[in-house]
Amino acid sequence: MIVFTLTVGMIVFPGFDEIKTPVRLAEAAQNHIPPSGKLLLYQMNGEILALYSQRFGREIRTPDDLEQAFQRTREGIAVFSQKDWEDLKDRFGRYGEVVPFRVGHKKLCYLKYAYP
Predict the structure, then answer these.
(1) How far apart are alpha carbons 94 and 90 in whole angstroms?
(2) Residue 98 — φ and ψ, nearest 5°?
């Protein structure tokens, strides 16, 4: 029983970290959002994303609100579902690099933006 518990704890569970933890987003947030800045979350309730990023999250509901947030912050990271990004990429794609990632079964992406 001890060997089984150790095996699961040391091998199996860490293998799921990449699947359930937004590691790439967390690293990018540490490098591109100041400690007092916010992770922009487009039409999502992303507490887990903000938690792992060690930044407060700000939920954004409309494209115009997102544009205003970009104007205020000038640079940072915004997170989208892949579906929402497909609808918005023509408007916001010119502001930076888009990186796809997954959290469990959710297909997401983040935009490292620099607003002119």
Answers:
(1) 8
(2) -105, 130
